[in-house]
Amino acid sequence: MHIQPIVKETEQELLKIELYALHLHSPQQASSFIKLISIHFPLTDLSHLKRIKKTTELLDDNKNCINLYGLIAKTSDVKKEDLVNFLLQNFNNDNGQNFDSDYFNQRIIKISASKYPATDKKKFDIWKTLWPMNFHNDYQKHDIPLNDIEIQEIFSIMNKLKNLSVELNSSKNVGLIYDPKKKLTTLQTDLNSLTDSHPLNHCILQLINASAKNYVIKLQKSKVGDKRKGLDCESYLLKDMDVFVLKEPCIMCSMALVHSRVSRIFYVENTEEGGLEGLLKVHLVPSLNHHYRAFKLIYD
Ligand SMILES: [Zn+2]
Asked: What is the 300 CA–ligand 1 centroid distance (Å)?
């Protein structure tokens, strides 16, 4: 038995990827460019890259010329002529100016960027010179190994959850919320809630809902202090909490865990539509403002 941390694919060396970028002619154009392009070309697996690059060029008359470039798509995903047609149809109305295909043909250029996010500041400082990137220094926390006592504790909690699943006689996902500081389970899947398979009834969302209800009850019972102050302090429902589930959560539930600021998630079985190792690693998306740790328990 061992526990596998779900970490980002990273490279020690800079690995480049080629993309198309549009040389933009004004900040206003950059703003409408981002709105349009982020919907049609989301670049989900390259979310460590910024959409806009700004460079300053010193001209002969000693004046600075600012150049803006907007990232469009990987050259492997789309042909330049298709991009030109797309932009002609969708991006041709900037302050009454009309652009023709020559305009876009000249302004769509190939650029190189880092395929992977930088996991330390030193790499970040070098790799971002190619194309601007986001950086979160909390990647280092993903490398901290679990100690033997933690591993024993984690397997023991997961075994309780497995027993609960057997007791329920259901193939549906079940889970619990665990407070690692107090060493206690604060919530577990409601026995009566497994009948409905609606996505909003997914195991993780049920646990978050239940924890929100408990929080409201706790607030109502609290007679001392300013309620608003209490809300500010504890408004993140799963701060410092661990979540245990039998199956890897979907992308929606993985995002709900970001919003509730969970600390760690442990699961046994990965799923095709999973949000932690299946379709996406939501807990490691650089542009999100919280990154929890995810672990898969492997029973050898
Ligand atoms: Zn879900």
From this structure: 27
Over residues 263-292, mean pLDDT: 90
Find the 135 Cα to ligand 1 centroid distance in Å: 28
- Whichever domain contains 228, its CATH number is 3.40.140.10
Task: Check residues 164 and 94 and name the one with the higher pLDDT.
Answer: 164
Domain end (from 137, 171, 194): 137
pLDDT score recorded for residue 6: 86
Q: Which helix (H) or strand (E) segment is 270 a member of?
A: none
Distance 265 CA to ligand 1 centre (A): 14
Q: Which residue type is seen at 158?
A: M
Terminal C-alpha separation, the chain: 5
**Distance from the CA of 204 to the center of ligand 1, in angstroms?**
6
Same domain as 27, residue 80 = yes
Which pTM value belongs to this model? Answer: 0.65
| Cα 287 to ligand 1 centre (Å) | 21
Residue with tokens 């004046």: 63
The pLDDT of residue 93 is 62
